[in-house]
Design brief:
With 395 residues, the chain is an alpha/beta fold. The chain folds into two domains: 147 residues, Aspartate Aminotransferase, domain 1, CATH 3.90.1150.10; 231 residues, Type I PLP-dependent aspartate aminotransferase-like (Major domain) (Aspartate Aminotransferase, domain 2), CATH 3.40.640. It contains 13 helices and 13 strands. The strands form three sheets. An eight-stranded mixed beta sheet has the order 2-9-8-7-6-3-4-5, with helices on both faces. Helix 4 packs parallel to helix 10, helix 5 runs parallel beside helix 6 and helix 11 packs parallel to helix 13. It binds pyridoxal-5'-phosphate (PLP). Pyridoxal-5'-phosphate binds next to loops.
């Protein structure tokens, strides 16, 4: 079939492909530990679900304004502004079905054919997808493991050009759990002001941090007028299936993104928005409790991975992913056997019954790494470690 160029390079998300493979094994009777999919394992907090159900019963089942209800936009503006130490007006907030629209739509609104867009490699697969659909030129920049997977600033400087239109940041990051330190953000912000480009800051994991808060580039001088913050409810409030996210943007850009929402999805489910309002206004203790639990699991997983011969893993500062280096199992092996990370991920699924993702599901820069999600029970994490260690020792 003949397709338009804009969709010709689109590929599925690796996590869904691996999930399907794991489920096929389960259907054949195998027992699999799922560390591939990146979503909270806890249910949506009860008071939020209750608010959503009551909203349906009360008739919140009709269209809302495309950019979201006034009440929710106001609540997000206050909350997101307070957390970033800046003033945000409700007109700068646009609500949509998930955080993904605030990756795709600002890119469609800003990037013209031939414009270059810098993004992290390894990084979330939607970044190259949205750049391709917008007709932009993808410019991947490596993350450096030595700097806990912050941006490689030298590579970043080298990748800047006259055509740089936008830089995508993701901190805390998927798939690495890396947090970009303030000094690196300052470096990027200075370049953005000097060379006049946009920054799309994906901060979906901003509330899942373990040592200290992740700084936001939005708060730096001169950046509010050239930054889009993409954030949402999926990870913070365990609401992945509700589909609720938001963007913070300069007002004129917010209006364009609102138009894209009007003509694509119309609006976000109105009962979902009521549930979101309760998430923000209601108790925040469950968020802190879940983050503390993830931290416990992280510590067990990282210690366990580092105890497996041939693996080494940095301590992720945020999100819920471990990104161990598995290069020692790779090309330069005894007998010259080539074992790229996709081979290793497959081997672990087949031999150990543990589903993980190859780093290459996040771009070529992920070769030599695996991604394991630790939003899973301690019991499963310990069992997965045992099984992986036995399977890898047999290689
Ligand atoms: N950005 C990153 C880095 C993510 O990992 C995800 C989800 O996995 C998203 C954005 C999308 O979030 P949502 O499900 O709210 O659209």
């Amino acid at each position: 079939m003949d397709f338009a160029d804009r969709v010709s390079t689109l590929e599925p998300e690796g996590a869904y492909t691996m999930l399907a493979r794991a489920q096929a094994l389960e259907a054949a009777g195998r027992e699999i530990i799922h560390l591939e999919i990146g979503q909270p394992d806890v249910p949506t907090f009860e008071h939020i679900s209750r608010a959503g159900m009551q909203a349906i019963a009360a008739g919140y089942t009709r269209y809302t304004p495309s950019a979201g209800t006034t009440a929710l936009r106001q609540a997000i503006a206050e909350d997101a502004g307070r957390r970033r130490g800046v003033t945000i007006r409700p007109e700068q907030v646009v609500v949509g079905p998930g955080a993904k629209p605030f990756l795709f739509f600002p890119t469609l609104a800003l990037v013209r054919p031939g414009d270059e867009v810098i993004y992290p490699d390894p990084g979330f697969p939607t970044y190259p997808a949205m750049i391709a659909v917008a007709g932009g030129v993808p410019v991947p920049v490596p993350l450096s493991e030595e700097d806990d997977f912050s941006f490689d600033l030298q590579a970043f400087d080298r990748s800047l050009s006259e055509r740089t239109r936008m830089v995508v940041l993701n901190s805390p990051g998927n798939p690495t759990g890396g947090v970009i330190p303030l000094e690196a953000l300052q470096h990027i912000a200075e370049a953005a002001v000097r060379r006049d480009f946009w920054v799309l800051s994906d901060e979906i994991y901003s509330r899942l941090v373990y040592e200290r808060p992740a700084p936001s580039i939005y708060s730096l001088p001169g950046m509010a007028e050239r930054t889009i913050v993409c954030d949402g409810f999926s990870k913070t409030y365990a609401m992945t299936g509700w589909r609720l996210g938001f963007g913070i943007l300069p007002e004129l850009l917010a209006q364009r993104v609102e138009l894209l929402l009007t003509h694509s999805v119309g609006c976000t489910a109105s009962f979902t928005q009521v549930a979101g309002l309760e998430a923000i206004r209601g108790p925040q203790e469950p968020v802190a409790a879940v983050a503390a639990e993830y931290r416990r699991r992280r510590d067990v997983l990282i210690a366990g991975l580092n105890a497996i011969a041939g693996m080494s893993c940095r301590l992720p500062q945020g999100a819920f992913y471990a990104f161990p280096n598995v290069k020692s199992f790779g090309p330069a092996q005894p007998r010259g056997i080539n074992r790229p990370s996709a081979w290793l991920a497959n081997y672990l699924l087949e031999e150990a019954g543990v589903a993980v993702l190859p780093g290459t599901a996040f771009g070529p820069g992920g070769e030599g790494y695996l991604r394991l999600c630790f939003a899973n029970s301690l019991e499963n994490i310990e069992l997965a470690l045992q099984r992986m260690s036995i399977a890898l020792a047999n290689l």
